[in-house]
Amino acid sequence: MLLFTPGPTPTPESIRQAMATPTLHHRTKEFESIFAKARLGLQTMLNMEEVLMLASSGTGAMEASVLQFCHSKLLSISCGKFGQRWGKIALANNLPHTELVKEWDTPISAQEVLEALQSDPSIDTLALQVCESAGGLRLPLEQIAREVKAYRQDIIIIADAITAMGVEPLDTTHIDVLIGGSQKAFMLPPGMSIIGLSKRALEVLEARPTHRGGLYFSFLTELKNQRKNTTAWTAPTTLITGLVRYFEIVQALASSNLDSALESSAQELDSSLLAQGFLRAYTHTRAISLATREAISALGLSLYPKSPALAMSAIAHTDSAKIRQRMKALGVNVAAGQDHIKDSIFRINHMGLIHIYEASYAINALELSLDTLGLRSFDGAGNASFFGALKKQEIL
Ligand SMILES: *Cc1c(COP(=O)(O)O)cnc(C)c1O
After folding, report:
1. Is 212 annotated as a binding residue?
2. What is the third-level CATH fold of 13-243?
3. What pLDDT, in 10s, does the model give residues 38-51?
4. Spatial separation of the C-alpha atoms in residues 374 and 44, rounded to whole Å
5. Quick one: pLDDT at residue 212?
6. Whose CA is nearest to atom 6 of ligand 1?
7. Which residue of 31, 152, 154, 391 shows the fewest CB atoms closer than 10 Å?
8. pLDDT of residue 330
């Protein structure tokens, strides 16, 4: 079965092999050297002042980030189920909170965020998604961050980039906290979150060492340890080993195709080669994502969000549940929606380094499913336009 859900994503064989080695003790030179590689990889990838790896799913990092930085009041943006989570975090921790809520297909605008900040000077932290996975929606994060910082430099901006990190290049100039998760574009099993911190975030942490984060999620304690290539508590050693293998694969992409990169041998990480590899990875993901959109429209289907993200294609269809079931019978697992749009959309993942032949088969399975359900006769239009688009983007 091809796993085409927007998290978890499939883990390539060579990453699984890397993680199948005997468990290392985390307080050893051997593990410290692996940890140092993981840090270098993340620093290159995120281009931020500091990085942290935490043993938690993405939500753990979201909660930890809010609790480290929010001292007076949180403003959160809810354009879907993950955006709602900020509010739940505030509520669970008894934190003063205000929220801007949009329909799940509609991005918030910078103007709306600014108005909310202007009307409440007690807000010190803004939390939002880069890509809201509930509806496959891309928020105008960079513009919001730029305008918020121009209005009030001291607001801490926390961005959940769990379905954007590793998908597209992100301008982190105005972002203080950038959150990622192992089970999305990193192609690792779930269980580790990743955090990028700005210079300003570090200053705030150091100036206000008291926070609501409790003992386990203390960024200051982690920083002290992780700068020395160790962790405060027992590290998720297996996932960190897998993360290093992911960076090796991406680095190999700088000079080879995807198949060879996936099978490349272990190598020293080099920042500039790795950065080149990431550009290739982003181009690859973007090409598949845009070509899939063309195929979707050639099949007479339409996307759900008004501003679609590259990470996934969320397709609006009243027969979504049946289409998913048919696709599954053809060996392709795509995700349903959630909550009130559970059966009115389905989502095809583009995160991670996906083979063109797999993405192409997923489109074929979609077109065949429409045919079986009597919705549209099969004529190969999906793949014709998918490959046409890839050729135009000079990917083939
Ligand atoms: C997957 C995802 C998360 C993380 O959820 P966990 O289940 O805690 O890993 C958070 N935000 C977004 C946008 C996601 O797609």
Report:
1. no
2. Aspartate Aminotransferase; domain 2 (3.40.640)
3. 999 999 999 999 99
4. 49
5. 84
6. 58
7. 154
8. 98
